[in-house]
Design brief:
2 copies of one chain form a homodimer. Chain A is built from 5 helices and 7 strands; from the N terminus they run E-H-H-E-E-E-H-E-H-E-E-H. Chain A has helices at 30-43, 55-62, 112-126, 142-151, 180-183; strands at 20-24, 69-75, 78-87, 96-103, 131-138, 154-165, 169-179. The model of chain A is unreliable at 6-15 (pLDDT under 50). In chain A, a hairpin with a 2-residue loop joins strand 2 and strand 3 (78-87).
Chain lengths: 185, 185
């Protein structure tokens, strides 16, 4: 789904990539994850979640049981981004992954969303998923859409008027797809 | 999603429509619902559910809390079909419905799936949903696809190789959509 992407590039240019570390999340990371997640949930313009979702509800949504995996991106010891990777469907559909991403707008222009997404795509391929599908990328979230496209995703369809944007009104939800066997990751 | 549709028309032609009754499901209907559902789950060729899903797991999936609603189609006092109607997404996406349908192949050719679907579409419109979306209609389930198209759904996209069919192998999942405000129901 749609990450909260940096609004503007960092004025002095991005720091070295080495300062960003991606790892699996631990239960003890939740307080920091929720701190970056809460404003994104409250804004209600990128995720199909209730805007009044609370800490516990969000934790249940994000910390799903296996085979789901949660990742975090850290810079200077602070969590600046997080991702949830899991099967998009059960049974005969479980070989297609989906993922959700959130990054801290305060850590703009450092390529955190891209680095996290690349990591998660590589993990998905390594875990045997054959493809990744995003079910609901808000059409107005053009920076997210551009990021996904730059990574190899294509828009399969746009579900018309499927998202009620707080300011833009009824807008589309893109269904995006990337074959992990053709593109690698 | 995909109903298990009648394999062949009834040899003596369908009985009068009056013999089919659609109503909200009660908790006490579960045993009959599971009886028609279990062979569909075990077959694993129309639903993205684990084929070894048990009675309790299926009940949790089907008897969702409100605003979800479950319907049954009865003929001669027996439950021959069931449907689950609920929002396709939360938050800003909750005005689009989705639904899942299962009908008893032993009650072939009586128009039960169609009648149940028409009822559920009318209910969805009456409940204020603006559209209905199916996320995963198995491409090989051509009778289901034809039924949805005859009711006004269109295929927005087909996610390639998104379903591992027990005999056909990797096949597509159609994403289907119907606007309930233009078409009525």
């Amino acid at each position: 789904m749609a990450p909260a992407l940096p609004a503007e590039p960092h004025p002095t240019g991005p720091p070295a990539e080495g300062t960003i570390r991606i790892r699996r999340a631990a239960a003890s990371d939740w307080a920091q994850i929720w701190r970056l997640m809460e404003p994104i949930v409250r804004a209600g313009d990128t995720y199909c979640w209730d805007q009044d979702l609370d800490d516990d509800g969000a934790r249940r949504l994000w910390f799903e049981p296996p085979p789901a995996r949660v990742y975090v991106a850290e810079a200077e010891g602070r969590i600046r981004g997080t991702a949830l990777l899991h099967p998009n469907r059960g049974g005969g559909g479980s070989h297609v992954a989906t993922a959700s991403f959130m990054t801290d707008p305060a850590a703009s222009g450092r390529g955190i969303a891209r680095k996290l997404a690349q990591h998660v795509l590589a993990e998905a391929a390594a875990q045997g998923y054959l493809a990744m599908q995003f079910n609901a990328v808000v059409e107005t979230n053009v920076r997210a859409v551009a990021l996904w496209q730059s990574l190899g995703f294509r828009i399969l369809a746009t579900v018309p008027r499927a998202f009620r944007h707080p300011s833009a009104g009824l807008t589309g939800l893109h269904i995006m797809h990337m074959d992990l066997t053709e593109h690698g990751a």
